[in-house]
Amino acid sequence: MKSWLDEVTWNSEGLVPAVAQDAASREVLMVAWMNRESLERTVASGEAVYWSRSRRALWKKGETSGHVQRVREIRLDCDGDAIVLVIDQEGGIACHTGHERCFFRKLEGGVWHDVEPVLKDPKAIYGER
Amino acid sequence: MKSWLDEVTWNSEGLVPAVAQDAASREVLMVAWMNRESLERTVASGEAVYWSRSRRALWKKGETSGHVQRVREIRLDCDGDAIVLVIDQEGGIACHTGHERCFFRKLEGGVWHDVEPVLKDPKAIYGER
């Protein structure tokens, strides 16, 4: 029997991009990647689990930082090759830089400007490393 | 001199995923891909131009359908490998299926359900083909 996981159009690396959108502010917080197992675990646990392409490992969001994402809703697009997670962001910080979200750079006059504040020093989030 | 385009982390195919978010409703409408030229043209024209991976060609959104996306804001994420376009969606329809947005499928009880209406028959959008 075809599973809901088979309806996702995984790319040649077995991945699909996942957009995390804040349930309250509706802002796009981040874009990450998921493989089959990370999506399965996300659904089973109700908390976002991604696939880290750099570490080549499952990446439970908030595992170190505590900035867990509680999943309220999961959406799939028309051709099955992109996902939206509507989430509640624990701590109000999605980005490892300490910004609310990863999209804090805005193009203005041919320059990317940081237009959102750092809410918490990454050293305080992750500890001195 | 390093251009704003060089700050984008293009993948091995020279592409970056772009999330189109509606300026008014704040909904995530679609995820598409951009190459350098499509992003340049988007900025120059103020209307979204993507890269069609299936057709391997620049894809001016709305060229056939009239469902042009006027770009209000362009955001880049922390590691430069994803873009958000905040746009005004002409015609209120972003998806080729005639839905407001491509993310009309919601996971409920292990099944993807269509939870949003078709606003316009695709045959009426594109003509009989």
Task: Write a short abstract of this structure.
The structure is a homodimer of 129-residue chains. With 129 residues, chain A is mainly beta. Chain A has helices spanning 36-45, 122-126, and strands spanning 16-22, 28-34, 49-52, 57-60, 69-76, 83-89, 105-108, 111-114.
Mean pLDDT of chain A: 96
Instruction: Tell me, briefly, the overall form of chain A.
Output: globular
Number of strands of chain A: 8
- Tell me the strand order in the biggest sheet of chain A: 2-1-6-5
The greatest interface here is: A-B, 35 and 35 residues
What Rg of chain A is obtained from the alpha carbons, in whole angstroms? Answer: 15 Å
Quick tags:
homodimer, 129 residues, mainly beta, 4-stranded mixed sheet, 2 helices, 12% helix
Characterization of the model:
Two copies of one chain form a homodimer. With 129 residues, chain A is mainly beta. The first copy, chain A, contains two helices and eight strands. Chain A has helices at residues 36-45, 122-126, and strands at residues 16-22, 28-34, 49-52, 57-60, 69-76, 83-89, 105-108, 111-114. In chain A, the strands form three sheets. Chain A has a four-stranded mixed beta sheet, covered by helices on one side. In chain A, a hairpin with a 6-residue loop joins β5 (69-76) and β6 (83-89). Chain A is globular, with a radius of gyration of 15 Å. The termini of chain A are far apart. Chain A binds chain B through residues 3-4, 7, 17, 19, 21, 26-28, 30-31, 43, 73-79, 81-82, 84, 95-97, 99, 102-107, 110-112, and chain B through 3-4, 7, 17, 19, 21, 26-28, 30-31, 43, 73-79, 81-82, 84, 95-97, 99, 102-107, 110-112. β5 (69-76) of chain A pairs antiparallel with β7 of chain B, so a sheet runs across the interface.
